Amino acid sequence: MSPVVVLLLFAGLSEAAGRVLPLVARRPGISRTLVVGLLLAGALIESAVIALWPLTASTLAGLLPTAAPDASDLVWTPSLIAPLLLAGILAFPRLGPLLHLLLLVGVGAGLAGPLAAATGLGWGVAAGCVAVAGVGLAVSVELVRRLVATILTIRVPEPIA
């Protein structure tokens, strides 16, 4: 298994832990099996989304008319993905989202340089492609997360006896 795949899985686990552990703290009676299942499922989904971020950004950059036609896809390197291992830093109720946003902006800025070099675009345009890809993926995941939460909270009416 390559170091990038291992780092992707750990970054996904970190992100999933940042989402699941506050839920566990609010509901102390939740079963361990459910917590482990949520962590594993969340880790796989978050890892896939993180893995898709540079691919989506390079696809968006390739759609621009000024991009180099033979530009290769942007890929994760261990140095680019390592900061995402800290993505689960959401322990502080008020600072957590700000730290998470700053971390993602930093990683996105790190992705913009290689994307600009690969496509021949300016750094600002490449950063815009990375930002649009990141926001699009985040919104998609959040919509699916809310849909699943809504489906899980729908209660079937009990029959009147």
Automatic annotation (TrEMBL):
Domain of life of the source: Bacteria
UniProt keywords, alphabetically: Membrane, Transmembrane, Transmembrane helix
Annotated transmembrane regions: 6-25, 34-55, 75-92, 99-117, 123-144
Protein name, as recorded: Integral membrane protein
